[in-house]
Design brief:
single chain, mainly beta, four-stranded antiparallel β-sheet, 6% helix
Length: 127
């Protein structure tokens, strides 16, 4: 059974930082591109950052590329999203996803694709 479990969300003041983690089980982790997505109430799901299977290629949305960094540790089956200088517009539920298809990191984010999805972790930024 495939599971993606996110953690690290919470309430943070504007200007603060958080690091989200997503641990995968039941899959050969290094065979999957991984991505972080977010969805705020009343808004469409947005591809935030995606990373290729070995971590050599990443794509980060223009809206966060100077503040968010995606990374992965294949030995620990974990993908991370480090978020700095958070603002109220970053408030959303953040999801991780795994895509085993022939996609690039950029395509995964733009197409919002994923074979498996986590349940999400809430990030709330207070101004």
């Amino acid at each position: 059974q495939v599971q993606l479990v996110e953690s690290g969300g919470g309430l943070v003041q504007a200007g603060g930082s958080l690091r989200l983690s997503c641990v995968a089980s039941g899959v050969a982790f290094s065979d999957y591109d991984m991505g972080w997505y977010r969805q705020a109430p009343g808004k469409e799901r947005e591809g935030v950052a995606c990373i290729s299977r070995r971590g050599y290629n990443t794509h980060t949305a223009a809206s966060v590329e100077d503040r968010f960094t995606i990374s992965r540790d294949n030995a620990k089956n974990t993908v991370f999203l480090h978020m700095d200088n958070l603002n109220a517009e970053d408030t959303a539920t953040y999801y991780c996803a795994a895509d085993g298809g022939p996609v690039t990191a950029q395509a995964m984010c733009v197409q919002k694709s994923g074979d498996y999805w986590g349940q999400g972790t809430q990030v709330t930024v207070s101004s």
